[in-house]
Design goal:
The protein is an alpha/beta fold. The protein has helices at about 5-15, 20-25, 30-45, 60-85, 105-115, 130-140, 205-220, 230-240, 250-255, 280-285, 285-300, and strands spanning about 50, 55-60, 95-100, 120-125, 145-150, 165-180, 200-205, 225-230, 245-250, 260-280. The strands form two sheets. Strands 4-3-5-10-6-9-7-8 form an eight-stranded mixed sheet. A two-stranded antiparallel sheet has the order 1-2. Helix 1 (about 5-15) crosses helix 3 (about 30-45). It is rod-shaped. InterPro entries: LysR_HTH_N, LysR_subst-bd, WH-like_DNA-bd_sf, WH_DNA-bd_sf.
């Protein structure tokens, strides 16, 4: 019913004492001021200005509007300034979620790039595997998720269609076999999973375990999963001690190393695609787009 332009006019009339002076202070014509006052009186259903020849005087209702105009217009100006700062990347917040094996390489590089280029943009970070991070994105609890999908698989689906998301590929990550340096296949160069069908296996996150089971089924065996941990440093430690073998993404091996472990490609090869996921609307937010660009650059540096 009452817009910002009307409030500005009422404040100007109160300050200047006439339509002519109010028009001059706002850069309007005098007839335009008169028309805006009449429109505001129609909307409020009461007289706001008492006309006394060439001078005017605010009525009680007009005085109320003029009194409230200052704080309301100041709040609007402050909101406009904050939005302009966000649009200009002088401010802004991005809530990022990423799966653990990306948090030691890809994510730190991206965060460092955002901080270097846009020091006033705040990026918060939490670890979560794709099912949880995508659920958080749907629920509005994060703005950007770093997820992954194995070859032949899609990102995990939730209650909503994945078409609601914008998905951008970041890099292709090879999955390698990890065995103890003392293992008979340590010098083989590559191996089929069926060569290790009798070995105890160490499995990671639920999706990684599912991928192991799928690959093993294709090779005609069911793996004996002796240990389960999502901590890849622990996985490598168990492998180094000869307690089992494991599948380890190449992304992990870029930051975690154990001299007692040998890794090699598997035949046939297995890969996963690391992806950045957001929504079409969030992608238009400057701080989110800047973080997406930083993830792409970090992925190129990682490769």
């Amino acid at each position: 019913m009452i817009d910002a332009a009307g409030l500005r006019v009422m404040r100007a009339i109160s300050d200047e004492g006439s339509f002519t002076a109010a028009a001059a202070s706002l850069g309007y014509s005098q007839p335009a001021i008169s028309q805006m006052v009449r429109r505001l009186e129609e909307r409020t259903g009461t007289v706001l200005v008492e006309r006394l020849g060439r001078t005017v005087r605010l009525t009680e209702a007009g005085t109320v509007l003029a009194r409230h105009a200052g704080p309301v217009l100041s709040a609007l100006e402050a909101a406009e300034a904050e939005v302009a700062a966000i649009a200009g990347l002088r401010s802004g917040r991005v809530r990022l979620m990423a799966f653990p094996s990306s948090s030691s390489t890809l994510v730190p590089r991206a965060l460092a790039l955002v901080k270097e280029r846009f020091p006033d943009v705040q990026v918060t970070f939490a670890e979560a595997e794709p099912p949880e991070s995508l659920a958080a994105l749907r629920a509005g609890q994060c703005d950007l998720a770093v997820a992954f999908a194995y070859e032949g698989d899609d990102l995990p689906r939730g209650e909503d269609d994945m078409e609601a998301f914008t998905i951008r590929d970041l890099l292709v990550d090879e999955v390698r076999l990890a065995v103890s340096a003392k293992h008979p296949l340590a010098k083989a160069g590559s191996a089929r999973l069926s060569d290790l069908s009798a070995e105890p296996w160490i499995a990671g996150c639920p999706r990684c375990r599912g991928h192991l089971l799928t690959l093993a089924e294709r090779e005609g065996f069911v793996p004996e999963v002796a240990f389960e941990t999502e901590d890849y440093v622990a996985v490598l430690g168990l492998v180094a001690e000869g307690l089992g073998v494991a599948l380890v993404p190449d992304l992990i091996l870029r930051s975690a190393h154990n001299p007692g472990v040998v890794t090699m490609p598997i035949d046939p090869a297995s890969r996963r695609t690391v992806q950045a996921v957001t929504t079409p609307d969030l992608q238009r937010v400057p701080a989110v787009q800047a973080t997406l660009d930083a993830l792409h650059e970090a992925a190129r540096l990682t490769c």
